[in-house]
Structures are given as structure tokens and as C-alpha cells.
Amino acid sequence: MNAQFKKGVLELIVLESVRKRDMYGYELVAEVSKVVDVNEGTIYPLLKRLTNEHYFETYLRESSEGPPRKYYHLTAAGVLYRDALESEWIQFSKQVNAFLKEHVE
Amino acid sequence: MNKQEFLKDLQSRIRILADAEQQDILAEYAQHIDLRTASGLSEEEAIRDFGDPGQLASEILEAYHVDPARLMAEPSGKEAADMVGALRRAGSKAGGTLRRLGIRIASSVCSIGQRLSAGVNRLGRWTVSFFHQCGLALRRLFRRPSQSESTVPQSVKEDPHMNVVSTPSHRGHQVLRAVKRLCTGLLRLLWNLLLALCAVPFIAAGMLALVGIGLLAVLLIQGYPLIGILLCCLGAVLCCAAILGLGITLIWHRPLPAENPEESQATEASPAEIIVRTVELAASQPEREEVNHHA
Predict the structure, then answer these.
(1) Which residues have CB under 8 Å from B255's CB, separation 6+?
(2) Burial of residue B106, with CB atoms counted within 10 A of its CB: 0-12 exposed, 13-18 middle, 19 or more buried
(3) Residue B74, by phi and psi: left (phi above 0), alpha (psi -120 to 50) or beta?
(4) CA B20 → CA A51, B15, B58, B76, distances in Å?
(5) Which residues on chain A place their C-beta less than 8 Å from a C-beta of chain B?
(6) CB contact under 8 A, B35 and A48
């Protein structure tokens, strides 16, 4: 898949994943990898940026194996941002699809 | 590249961030690698999945709105720290020189101001003395004939008619002096009126600034950030006050207040005395005539 495509949608996928339930980094990478084949290196900086912009809150929780894990939680601002991104995505994909269909016919 | 090398490399690239943030990021990556290796991958494979460390670091820095391209130009954090230190030292040095320069400029401005004020003072004194000399010369010019005339009647003081005859010249002298006084009075009035006219806008501006200060003080107490405008108003008031003070010093009271009263009294006294004398003489004439008749 085109890297530019991925980069644009990755934010939406990450926000949506965390909206369903709080996740820690590794778990989130695995979840996102199910949807798009993504380089791990790009997800952690993205999480950092979304946290710095207050769309995510983080907290530490003990795990049965190894050190405590940092969990990501979607804030109210994050939910609003996710909804905005979703509607943008829907409109965008609709337009692109309509354009493509027009040309096929 | 194993885990430790990777983490060290990454840390050297994100050294610009705060220590706590660095530790947070590194812990997360270390945990990710640990979990990867637990699921059966080697450290190298896990690290390879992160891609290019430079790319990774630049993406992390972008999350903090740090321009990675600029930091990439600097090879290591230590050098950056050294550069920061050098810049700070240079800044403090520049500040010191600037401060010294400022002090020098201020002192030179002060000395220039002092010299200027001394010069203006000297000029003012010179003008005052010049006008005083002019006034004295004029007075002498007018007094000389009167003195020469007044000596004549004194020598023939016994004759009342001669004394009465000499009064017209005294009157002319008096008229001249009155005209002169009127002229100077008019000039003085005009000059002071001009000053007052000039002062009116400054007084108005000062009043406005004062009202502004009052309003701003109230607003400031209410929590508006208006301290700058308040200071500006205060400056305007001070400026207006200074200009008005200058105007007050320029008001023309009397050319020389220390010497003038005595002289003016003397000059004013003499015509009055003359009038009194003439009146007395005029009153004594009938008596003398009566005495002559009796005789």
C-alpha cells in the first residue's frame, strides 16, 4: 500500500482503536497492523504527537510479565478530533470513488 | 545492531528533548523490543521493523514541533550543548558590552545636556544683561536732558515762576516714559498671551492623559493588562508638565526684578514729587501774592 495513503489514514485508525478500549503501545501496533501494514517506527511518534496535542492521556498499569505498561486513553478532545477525521475521510473517499466511477463509465 | 546500541543511538538523536521525555520514549521502545523478542523474534529483526533510526528520530522530534532538519546538521547533542553554552556566553558578553555602551551613551548624553543647559543659561543671562544694558542706555538717554534741566531750576529755586516754567519739559519726559512703559507692558502682555496660547493644547493633552491614567488605573485594578498604556499616559503627563514648566520660566515678569523696584520707585517718585512740589508752589503763590499786597 502507498505510504502516503497510510500516513493520512493512520491517525484515524489509531484514534479509533484506542476509542474502543485503552491500549498500550505494543498492543496498539499489533491492532493497527491488522488493518494496514505499517512500520512500527511511525506509530510511536504518532502516539507521542497525539499525546502532546492532548488527544490522548497516558497512565501506567502493572502487568503480570515485565515492567508496567503505558496505556493510552482517548480524551474528549480526542473523540471530537476522531469524529472530525472520520467525516473528512468519508467525504474524501466518497468524492474519490465518485470521480473514479465517472471515469470508468 | 542490538537493543542497547539502538537505544543509545536513538537517545543521541533526541537529546534536545527534556530528560523525562527521553526516558519515557526510550522505555517505550525498549518495552516494544522486549515484547517482540518474547514473541519469538530476534532483537535485530525487531529493531529492523522500526526502520531507519534517523527517520524515526525525526518523526519523534516532529511530534514536539522540533525541526529535525536543523538538528540533523549538528552531529551530536554534546556539541549542540557546547554551542548553546558558547552562544549563551557570547550573549552575556554582548549584553555586557551593550550595557557598557548604553552607560557611555547615557553619560555622554548627560554631559551634552549639561553643556547645552549651561550654554542656554549663559545665553539667557547674556540676553537679559543685554536688554538691561539697552534699558539703562535708554533711561540715561531720557534722563540726561531732565537732569540738566533740573539742575537749572535748582540753582534758581527761589524763583517760583522759573520752576513752574520747567514743568512742561518734565511732563514731556513723563509722557515718553509712560509710552515706553506702555510699549513694554503691551509687549509683555502679547508675549505672555502667546505663551498662554501655546500652553493651552499642552494643558488639554495633560488633562486628557490624567483622565486616562485614572481610567486605566481602575481598569488595571479590575485585572486588565494595561500597564504599558498606563506608563505611556504617565509619560505624556510628565512631558506636558515639563513643557508647561518651561513655558512658566519663559513668562516675562519684569526684566530685572532685583534692581527694578528701587529704580522704578525712584523714577516714579520724582515726577510725583515734582507734581506735589508744583501744587505746593501753586498753592503758596496766592499766599505770597497776599503777602505782597499786604506789603
Answers:
(1) B128, B131, B132, B135
(2) exposed
(3) beta
(4) 15, 11, 18, 19
(5) 25-26, 29, 39-42, 44-46, 48-49, 52, 65-67, 69-70
(6) no
- The CATH number of residue A33's host domain is 1.10.10.10
Query: What is the SS3 assignment for A58?
Result: strand
Closest CA to A61 of B4, B31, B38: B31
- For B202-252, write each residue's pLDDT tens digit: 899 999 999 988 988 888 888 888 888 888 889 999 998 998 888 888 877
Nearest residue in A to B46, CA atom? A40
pLDDT at B165 over 70: no
Query: A25-35 and A3-20 are packed helices; what angle lies between their axes, rounded to 10 degrees?
Result: 120
ipTM score of complex = 0.83
**pLDDT-based confidence at residue B75 (cuts at 50, 70, 90):** low
> For chain A, how many structural domains are there in total?
1
Residue-range definition of the domain harbouring residue A83: 3-102
Selection from B47, B7, B3 nearest residue B23 by Cα: B7
Please compute Rg for chain A using Cα positions: 16
A72: β partners: A23, A58
Is B50 an interface residue toward A (CB < 8 Å)? yes
Cβ of B63 within 8 Å of Cβ of A46? The answer is yes
Q: CB distance A70–B28 less than 8 Å?
A: yes
Alpha-carbon gap, residue B189 to B185, rounded angstroms: 6
Q: What are phi and psi of A63, to 5 degrees?
A: -120, 155
DSSP state of A65: S
B35 in A contact zone (CB under 8 Å): yes
CA distances from B291 to B91, B163, B284, B285, B294 (A): 108, 20, 10, 10, 5
Q: Searching chain B, which residue's CA lies closest to the CA of residue A24?
A: B28
